[in-house]
């Protein structure tokens, strides 16, 4: 079975690599990293490579989820739409090989994007700022790879669970908009209705936990732990909570010692949740679908 998964993964990596839109996004990501490093070096004095590294959090949050969703949302449903899924299942790969092979192959494409972005940051960090923070760099790269893989898993899971391209696109775009644009409305809005005020800095625990469940928020919190500087979550803000709270993690907003589910490291659990659960649901539905 493992050999069939790797066979499917190689095919998926090649297929995804032919997408001009995907390569345009990867090129945009690498270009933004290069431009950002040069701009910071040109405009700011006494900045270390370790401090500049946190800048990567913004372009990665903006582009990596979009690239991952584009890479993965047609992975399985595209085969069903074209009818090639029946031909593929007539060969040695079975449904398990297809789902996890596609997940592995599409993750490879996103991993390549992360590797290129961090390679550029490594080179420019050494050339422009005279030092290379290897420990921070490796930690940030690992967290970013997990972040990208999370959105690939989300997209592949949706692709395996639905039957049409339209449904797959609607679900992945809808979830992305919830994470980016609607999360504060969906969490701070009910808080205001319940307590007749927006969430203060020391908000209720349930609200802080809901904030932690957003994968983009979890990634920003994790990144801020491994780099020398803050990585702010890329989310729409509507002013429904204290302005001071926007730059703080749930653990910092909790009065006293924060429980484990509000601490920054819990972001790993959140990212794994959004990776594993959609893939598991998609795999379950795909296994029982009459093709």
Salient structural properties:
single chain, 291 residues, mainly alpha, 2 domains, 0% strand
How would you sum up this structure, described in words?
With 291 residues, the chain is mostly helical. The protein folds into two domains: 176 residues, no CATH class; 88 residues, no CATH class. Helix 11 packs antiparallel against helix 13. It is globular, with a radius of gyration of 20 Å.
Briefly say what this structure is.
The protein has 291 residues and is mainly α.
Write down how many β-strands occur, each being a DSSP E stretch of 2 or more residues. 0
Intertermini distance: 21 Å
> How would a crystallographer describe the biggest sheet?
none
What is the C-alpha radius of gyration, as a whole number of Å? 20 Å
What's the structural domain tally?
Answer: 2
Structural class: mainly alpha
Mean pLDDT: 87
Order of helices and strands: HHHHHHHHHHHHH
- What portion of the residues fall into strands of 2 or more residues? under 5%
Low-confidence stretches: none
Q: What coarse outline follows from CA principal-axis ratios?
A: globular
Quickly count the helices.
13
Bin the helical content: over 70%
Describe the SSE topology:
Blueprint: H1 2-16, H2 20-43, H3 49-53, H4 57-72, H5 77-82, H6 84-89, H7 95-129, H8 134-161, H9 165-195, H10 205-212, H11 215-226, H12 250-253, H13 266-287
Helix pairs in contact: 1-7, 2-4, 2-7, 4-7, 4-8, 7-8, 8-9, 8-11, 8-13, 11-13
């Amino acid at each position: 079975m493992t050999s069939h998964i790797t066979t499917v993964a190689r095919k998926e990596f090649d297929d995804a690599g032919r997408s001009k839109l995907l390569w345009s996004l990867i090129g945009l990501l690498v270009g933004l990293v290069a431009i950002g490093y040069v701009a910071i070096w040109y405009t700011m004095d006494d900045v270390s490579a370790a401090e500049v590294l946190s800048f990567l959090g913004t372009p990665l949050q903006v582009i990596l989820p979009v690239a991952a969703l584009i890479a993965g949302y047609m992975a399985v449903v595209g085969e069903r739409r074209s009818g090639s899924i029946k031909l593929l299942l007539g060969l040695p790969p079975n449904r398990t090989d297809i789902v996890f092979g596609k997940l592995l192959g599409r993750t490879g494409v996103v991993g390549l994007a992360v590797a290129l972005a961090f390679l550029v940051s490594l080179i420019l960090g050494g050339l422009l700022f005279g030092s290379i923070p290897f420990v921070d760099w490796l930690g940030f790269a690992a967290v970013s790879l997990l972040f990208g893989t999370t959105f690939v898993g989300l997209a592949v899971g949706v692709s395996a669970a639905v039957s049409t391209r339209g449904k797959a696109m609607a679900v992945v775009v809808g979830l992305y908009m919830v994470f980016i644009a609607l999360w504060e409305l969906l969490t701070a809005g009910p808080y205001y209705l319940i307590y007749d005020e927006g969430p203060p800095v020391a908000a209720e625990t349930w609200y802080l936990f809901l904030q932690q469940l957003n994968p983009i928020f979890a990634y920003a919190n994790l990144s801020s732990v491994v780099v020398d500087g803050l990585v702010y979550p890329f989310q729409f803000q509507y002013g429904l909570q204290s302005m001071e709270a926007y730059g703080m993690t749930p653990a910092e907003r909790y009065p006293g010692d924060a429980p484990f589910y509000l601490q920054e490291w819990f972001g790993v659990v959140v990212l794994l949740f959004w990776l594993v659960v959609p893939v598991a649901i998609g795999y379950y539905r795909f296994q029982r679908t009459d093709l």
